[in-house]
Design brief:
307 residues, alpha+beta, eight-stranded mixed beta sheet, seven-stranded antiparallel beta sheet, 9 helices, globular
Length: 307
């Protein structure tokens, strides 16, 4: 309560702040025009970076991926990279949050009334900062997530490149309902080849014997996924980027999801069947501890007040 009162006196917004059309507004007041193609057609991309102990994690990697997504969608960026950094920094400062989720967004924007020509739209950049968001709550992270493998295909990369971090989540949303209907907490999707792709906002890793594997096709190459692979190289843990079948997943000794929203999170059952002992595995636990320890020590950190 003291922190909230202090934030009020300092005119901070711990509930969140957004940057839209050149202005900063409280998150509850943020809006876009009804006819923005980002809303009417899902024509938008984003990238999400976390802040821990007052520092962005892998900010430049997130900016690289954001620019890549915008280039794929042929957006014209209305603000330069340094300007994006300034906006993200300002959003964090205006919330007063030491631990936060910060998102940068581009939409196709508005075009002439009745036009279906995307070249005539004025692309829009926006951003926001809110308290840190996690895929799994503390209780789920301790016991592990229950996952359902949906029969739906992830949107094929021949249609939309997997490296565009976009807002087209209908396949994910429907797969989540498949999981809920089956009594599970979240979902994984297959690709059109029938192998495992990814989950709603997370990559997956499977440990079989001594080798850790993660899908490499039809997946977003997550920043946390990259971090896991780097940690594994440091500790001498073999990692394969390869196709993983449903049977490979169910027969694995350990499974975990990884995401900016929560780091490394154990998966302890798939389709109602326990993975390994049915409890978070030793490697999963070790990697999670290393990941957060390294972050607390400043690994890939960019202090907000140094931008």
């Amino acid at each position: 309560m003291k922190e909230i009162e202090m934030n009020r006196r300092l005119n901070l917004h711990p509930e969140g702040i957004a940057f839209i059309d050149g202005s900063y507004v409280p998150i509850a007041e943020a809006s876009i025009p009804l006819m923005d193609w980002g809303f009417t057609r899902g024509d938008a991309c984003q990238d999400t970076v976390s802040v821990r102990n007052g520092a962005f994690f892998r900010l430049q990697d997130h900016l690289d991926r954001f620019e890549q997504s915008c280039a794929h969608l042929r957006y014209t960026m209305p603000v330069e990279r340094k300007g994006i950094e300034t906006v993200l920094k300002s959003c964090v400062e205006m919330t007063g949050l030491a631990n936060a989720t910060v998102q940068m967004i581009m939409t196709r924007g508005l075009g002439p009334s009745g036009s279906r020509d995307p070249r005539l739209c004025k692309n829009r950049f926006m951003a926001f900062c809110v308290p840190f968001v996690v895929v799994a709550n503390e209780e789920q992270r301790k016991r592990g997530l229950s996952v359902w493998i949906s029969s739906r295909w992830r949107l094929p990369p021949d249609s939309v490149p997997s490296q565009i971090k976009n807002y087209n989540w209908i396949d994910f949303v429907l797969s989540l309902y498949d999981a809920y209907d089956a009594g599970c907490e979240t979902s994984l999707m297959k690709n059109h080849l029938g192998t495992i792709s990814e989950g709603p906002g997370f990559n997956v890793f499977a440990l079989t014997g001594k080798v850790l594997s993660t899908p490499g096709y039809n997946v977003l190459e997550g920043i946390t996924r990259r971090s896991v692979i780097e940690i594994c190289r440091e500790i001498g843990q073999p990692v394969d980027v390869k196709s993983i079948s449903e049977s490979d997943l169910i027969s694995a000794d350990e499974l975990f999801a990884c995401s900016t929203a929560g780091g490394i999170m154990p998966i302890t059952s798939v389709n109602g069947k326990p993975i390994g002992s049915g409890k978070p595995g030793a490697l999963t636990t070790r990697l999670g501890e290393i990941y957060w320890t390294k972050r607390d020590q400043g690994w890939h950190a960019t202090p907000v007040d140094e931008l």
